[in-house]
Amino acid sequence: MDLNYLHSRHQVSLINAAAATSAEARIAHKRLADLYAARINLQRRDLPAGSAGALQLA
Description:
This protein has 58 residues and is mainly alpha-helical.
């Protein structure tokens, strides 16, 4: 899965959590954000050595 997509979904989930009008919605959006963050970390871990700098330029 594309890292840009995951970062975008993570941000949207955080924004939705902050804007949630109920505790249940806030928790659900925060959990989604946590899942996206975990997926991002897994994909970054699997990148070839030295390629992390290229992520910042994209």
